[in-house]
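Whiteboard transcription, Tuesday session. T.W. wrote the structure tokens on the left side:
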């Protein structure tokens, strides 16, 4: 008979532990101590490591660490995310290298490399009339590029291959990096306007019906 009250008490405590908070029971909730702003938080005397307080000014939770009050956040900024294994991405072959240790470090180190490489490309091959001397009709380098990139004659996966991405005319700089001087003159007769239209003259027809010209596009 003496065990019955103990069993009943245990049942009552268990029921209380699993009770739900109903509508209007906000007063039953536990909350963090609150401060008006960061100045009030910094004025707290003798806080213990691990203490937390809610800042009413910015609606954020602050925790006290061995370096002072810090806003508690799980943003995981790129500067806060460490690499599992530090690596070097920009000093290959250097006598002294520096391993990047965070995501931010890798991005900053590799961005100058990839941005330069991605901005320079060769347009498709085109025919240049050098059959006779004299000024020739201008060649629209940009349109030649769009025509060929927009209508490839074959692809490795005709059913699923995406359209080749292209740039707008005003997104590119246009260059001729080399031209056969015996055919196009020295100084060269070649000029290019801002829209990619190349004007040129032939000073001598090529002896073997072939002449070299290299065109390069650079993304602005």
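and on the right, the sequence the group agreed on:
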């Amino acid at each position: 008979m003496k065990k019955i009250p103990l069993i009943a008490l245990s049942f009552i405590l268990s029921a209380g532990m699993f009770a739900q908070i109903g509508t209007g029971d906000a007063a039953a909730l536990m909350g963090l101590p609150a401060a008006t702003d960061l100045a009030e938080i910094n004025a707290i005397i003798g806080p213990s490591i691990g203490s937390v307080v809610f800042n009413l000014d910015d609606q954020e939770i602050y925790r006290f660490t061995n370096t002072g009050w810090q806003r508690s956040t799980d943003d995981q900024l790129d500067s806060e995310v460490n690499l599992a294994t530090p690596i070097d991405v920009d000093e290959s072959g250097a006598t002294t290298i520096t391993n990047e240790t965070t995501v931010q470090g890798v991005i900053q180190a590799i961005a100058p490399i990839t941005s330069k490489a991605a901005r320079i490309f060769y347009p498709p091959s085109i025919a240049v009339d050098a059959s006779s001397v004299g000024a020739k009709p201008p060649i629209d380098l940009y349109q030649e590029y769009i025509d060929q990139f927009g209508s490839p004659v074959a692809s490795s996966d005709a059913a699923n291959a995406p359209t080749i991405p292209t740039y707008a005319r005003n997104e590119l700089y246009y260059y001729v990096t080399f031209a056969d001087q015996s055919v196009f003159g020295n100084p060269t007769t070649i000029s290019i306007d801002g829209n990619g239209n190349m004007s040129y003259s032939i000073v001598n027809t090529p002896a073997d019906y072939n002449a070299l010209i290299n065109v390069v596009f650079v993304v602005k």
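Someone added at the bottom: Residues 31-73 form one domain.
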